[in-house]
Amino acid sequence: MEIRELRYFVAAAEELHFGKAAQRLGIAQPPLSRTITQLERRLGIALLERTSRKVTLTEAGAVLLAEAHAILSAVTAAERHTQQAATAHPSVVLAVKTGTVGELLTKLLDAYAAEPGAATVDLLLCEAHQHQRLLRDGQADVALLHLPFDSAAGLDTETLCTEGQVAILPASHPLAGRPQVRMADITTLPTLPMARWPGPGGSYPEGPGAEVRNLTQLFQLIALGRTTVVIPESAAADLRRDLAAVPVVDAPPVTTVIAWPPHSRLRAVADLIRVATRL
Question: Domain 3-71 - what CATH class?
Fold first, then answer.
């Protein structure tokens, strides 16, 4: 299969409309249709079901769509990494979730900057479910993840630290003055349902809690008395005055890891990981 064929197929599979897919690709519709037909003929299977009214993915087409995403992401990453290797002033892109790992991140950046020949570190602030895609696509070289909340599947990792968790509540809530609480105390609050984070695919689990994407949005909703959350202790540093953090004694510990794609060969990434694990 050719890269061009995969790009054409992905556009058609995502748009489920040949006219819109051709417009997205900046080509005429007939070459798009011919390319996908040739691809199906070579594979000996139907990837798309076409009728006069709609286009749908076959089961085989859904499999190829997932594989094509991975392949095209790898191509994009290869292009960027190759260009990086040839530059006189390399940089490394570090993906972190907005509002988290503040103290750890500051220490890491300061320690790495003090290293001889340190590359420029560009921070890429992202949302909870985006790390893997950013690393896979080559938009980020390395990321800070929190296990078990974030998935590290398919990535190489080194453990940096482990910490407990706290419940974030409105400062006026009756539980806010307690020295500690248990998970059952937080998950059964009728007026403060637990916030819901998006999964790896970007969709939210079912439930009554507010849908959130970052800590800034989350803390605003908690202050308004709409939701609550249990998060790592470090994420509650410098908490706003109208919120309170209460230790949750039976919440599972959270492990912060530095993660990178296993095929990475960038020296700047290796140096950053070495400094992180030393810290």
Answer: mainly alpha
